[in-house]
Amino acid sequence: MSSPRVVEVETPLGPARVHLARPPRAHGSVVLTHGAGGSLRAGDVTAVATGLVEAGWAVALVEQAWVVAGRKLPPPAATQDPAWLPVVAHLTTGRGALPRPLVVGGKSNGARVAFRTAHEVGADAALALAFPLHPPGKPELSRAGELRAPVPHGIPLHVVQGESDAFGTPAEVRAELPDPSWVTGVKGGHGFTRKPDDLVAAAVAFVRTLA
To answer: What is the tally of structural domains in the chain?
Structure first.
């Protein structure tokens, strides 16, 4: 993937930073963000972004405002979500608006944000890379409501989950969704593997069903 264009977008938490790669005649767009660790340099996120661009999709990698501000942990949803909304709005309106269909997604905590707000931002689909269904060892603290948030609005979703993910196995995630085919199990745990080829393939396969 060639060097992306970097833009800053003002939010209630300060500026967010967007790394935008837009191939000619893109089939659609994916707005993707990081997990609670706050790094877009994670091998899985960058591999998926590269794979999507190579497949002809525009990709906006978003460093959320709390990361740009130097915070170590994400704020609560009531604070985090309002800082995500203007970023997607900036990317999808005006003369430089990203092409449709629009997929919103993220890794772990970023997937939670994307799924919670998918309807509000007008997304056409949602993609999760390692959805944290529950804290490790605490299945009773389920986030299934967030996982299913796009469903009542008819927004297609897909979850790519590591087979040994302590935050929820593929089987656990499938049990919370209407259709088990919405989940792809791949090698690895919550951080996937060093060479996440199957993760990339699953993400690309999903977006191709939309264009």
So the answer is: 1
What tokens appear for 68 in the block? 């740009």
CATH number, residue 202: 3.40.50.1820
For residue 105, the surrounding DSSP H or E stretch is: strand 102-107
Given a contact cutoff of 8 angstroms between Cβ atoms, the answer to whether 208 and 101 are in contact is no
Residues 6+ apart with CB under 8 A from 93: none
Q: For residues 203 and 36, what is the distance between their CA atoms, to the nearest angstrom?
A: 20
What the block records as the tokens of 72 is 């170590």
34, 97, 144, 148, 187 from 128: Cα distances, Å = 11, 23, 13, 12, 15
Q: What is the pLDDT of residues 43-62, one digit of tens each?
A: 889 999 999 999 999 999 99
Burial of 83 (0-12, 13-18, 19+ CB in 10 A): buried
Domain that holds residue 174: 5-208
Rounded Cα gap, residues 154 and 144, in angstroms: 17
Query: Which residues, including other chains, have CB under 8 Å from residue 27's CB and lie 6 or more apart?
Result: 55, 56, 57, 99, 207, 211
Instruction: Quick: pLDDT tens for 185-194.
Output: 999 999 897 7
Q: What's the burial of 198, exposed, middle or buried (CB within 10 Å: 0-12/13-18/19+)? A: middle
Decide if 157 contacts 126 (C-beta within 8 A): yes
